[in-house]
Amino acid sequence: MYPYYEQDWSVLPPENNRRFNPAFNMATIRQAFTEAVERVRMPTPTRLRDLIRQIRAARTAAEERAVVNKECAYIRSTFREEDSVWRCRNIAKLLYIHMLGYPAHFGQLECLKLTASTRFTDKRIGYLGAMLLLDERQDVHLLITNCLKNDLNSSTQFVVGLALCTLGAIASPEMARDLASEVERLMKSPNTYIRKKATLCAFRVIRRVPELMEIFLPATRSLLSEKNHGILITGVTLITEMCENSSDTLMHFKKIVPNLVRILKSLILGGYSPEHDVSGVSDPFLQVKILRLLRILGHNDPDASEAMNDILAQVATNTETSKNVGNTILYETVLSIMDIRSEGGLRVLAVNILGRFLLNSDKNIRYVALNTLLRTVHADTSAVQRHRTTILECLKDPDVSIRRRAMELSFALINAQNIRTMTKELLLFLEKADAEFKAQCSSGMILAAERYSPNSRWHLDTQLSVLIAAGNYVRDDVVSSTIQLVSSSPVPEQTYITNRFWESLQVANHCEDKQPLLQVAVWAIGEYGDLFMYGANEDEFERPTESDLIAVYHKFLTSAQVSTTSKQYALVSLAKLSTRLQQCVEEIQALITSFGSHLNVDLQQRGVEFTQLFGSYKHLRPPLLEKMPAMQISRISSQNGESAGSFDDNSPDVIENGIEIGGSGAHPLIESNMNTMGDNTNILLDLLGSTDLTPGVSDLAMATDLSNAVHKKNTRNANNDATSNVAVSNNQDLLDLLDLDMTAPSTTSVMGVNLATDHGNVNNMMNLRGIDLNLGFGGIDTMPSSIPTNGDDLASMLGGLGAPNNAVLPMGADSLLGELNPTTTANNVTVPPQGPKLTALDKNGLLVQLVPVKGSDCMKIFMTTTNSSDNTLEQYLLKAAVQKSFELQMLPPSGSMLPPGGVITQEMRVVATSNAVLRMRLRIQYTLDGQQLVEQTEVSGFPDQQPSTE
User: Fold this and answer.
1) Which of 194, 226, 402, 625 could tie 397 with a disulfide, CB 3.0–4.6 Å?
2) Which long-range contacts (CB under 8 A, 24 or more apart) does 204-211 make?
3) pLDDT cut 70: percent of the chain above it
4) What percent of the chain has pLDDT over 90?
């Protein structure tokens, strides 16, 4: 039998693949051999450099995709044919294709085959492909675990290094747990190359699985004693990661501070080392790592901070600043100084280093300096203030990031001493700033002026300058803040700023380009039109005639460039001017009536409603459009308004209105110009006073209610409705429904309409809004006499309505008006019940009375404060304290302003925990004509209360 050639391995063409025939001569054999050699040479794949050249030569994205797709198709075909000769080259090309963003997942298994190869070149490409193509989201990466374990035990250090790098890059939690012991063993290897790689791998393993930290602790202790800088830097990196992840490990490594100081000192004072020298600095990478670890170890640790103060001073003074390498070390030094318990002189040195950075020509260094100063300005404000001029110069920097950081830092530097200078510079910046800066800068300037303004006129001028400089980029909060400021200013200042607003409107393009200014201006002119036109002209402003004023309003209301919101302001302002001006009422009526058919629904509604006030309801126009009372700034308050219960004598923490102040867990209370807060460093002592106390006062416990100071009357968004900026308390549902201004102080009237005697006017006003309040209360003449209030509560608004016991309310009436029973608490307004009253204070026209009512589970105490003087008391604040054997809860008061004849009500609930006689100490503070007054009194005579069984 003649032998057959295997078809797959034959070197002859298929037509010649038959039984050997000795008749073939040597020429035929030679030809067949030549053809076989050529066949072997043909499938040689393209080299990586040739592929790169082809892709770069592509002129369009389509040509590039064609080249990539053709090469990927060829690589797939070689993978299917199990071509092991060129697998390494094909994987290298596939990795390059992957780096360009094309899919290369089909080469994952081929990478695993390369890692199992015995050749180092194959392993190198295989592990590189594994790091790029594999991740823990795919189960394929688990197949490489056994290969990694074998290579970690290899006798070749470079193979071990490849395995360690791959493990650190793609280690999943499961893989890290399986191979952590191998990494820990290699950390003790005598080979420095392997130790360095193993330490870095341990760092990555701990980052992925923090609970494996304890395995590496024993091997970590000896890393800082090495002379090799590679091991030192990896050891410091590993220790830093451990300290950041575990407080126990942080305490364990506190003792290495002297070792770190010694290493850092040797780097600074040591001689020239060409192996580690970078631009004249000895191993800056190691220095930066050590400084970062020192910052972590010295944070809130006086002893560790004391140990590193000297070395930080040496680094700050001995480091060369002419090169960027030295600036890097100085930056880390500054961060370490500001983060530990360093000395005051050292902090000044750190701030001065940042000041030198601000003078650097490199914009990256200037940005880093501004960013760091912004983070550390509160640690040493006086030191940063010395560089204020340089910081202000950065506002003119061409780089947008530097200007933004300089602006934020400038706001942080503002105080009462430099408010005028800083505001002047920031106004110049605001005028020339890009649009993206104007909104943030204007809001920041408004807050700074509100907090540090030297006087009201300067404050008003600043607000006006901000509105002019920022233009249409002003946020809504600036508009509402300006309106609030004008409303709370004295009458001469209101006249002054209204004239200034009028002057600003005469400038060309101010109406179109500065819509927020237009809104505030027309609001002020409408509100204080009588002062503007006929008041004292101390500043000798040029006043317009009434016809000129109406003509300007006509221009605003008919201009296409004026926004709908501004027209809403102008329309309401024009309606108010009808009660302020002495003439031109008919022109105002005609202009308002023309809006009854406006295309905008809101403007049409306003036009129709205001037109009614010129017709059959003209007798309601003056009271409805009278001046708004001074608005208060919105404050932060708790959700439930509850004050704290009782406090021990040695408890340093005070929880005010649900906000804990001092102690652990305390968070800062947002400052918003709360001048009535006073010195709250020791509220308990302030509450009890420094006078002689009666026996047993030491057993008193305090419950503080800050809702009067922080729960002010909320002002609405001025851009939404200029006529509703003083809607107060929680009666918003009914007030919004009526869309009327009902905040004027009165006892038995709503905006001057007597509800008890003028029933026709009441019905007319309600019918004006299409609301029928004849809800079955019986005859309105049978109503009891109204309760004197400050006009903020529902009872005073309805003239003291009280439903008879047999009254039947129609469906929905209870949801509209609530329960009008005198003992009901609704919307934070408490109507005191009838009963014996305890007079707590009767002084200077201020009467404070308490009505205790015993209940099943607690005793309710209804407090009523009445102002019988001719002055308005503002920022009213009540604090109360009871003995430790009682628990006190205070509900929010009905208001914080007491006009003449006004009333503030508040409910307190007391629960007895043991048999004792209740005594209550009250501290009352308020502001009269800008001066803060404090009254303190003690009340007794409360009915006995059984202790709670809960």
Assistant:
1) 402
2) 204/167, 204/168, 204/169, 204/171, 205/167, 205/168, 205/171, 205/176, 205/180, 206/238, 206/241, 206/242, 206/245, 207/241, 208/171, 208/172, 208/173, 208/176, 209/173, 209/176, 209/177, 209/180, 210/245, 210/246
3) 74
4) 39
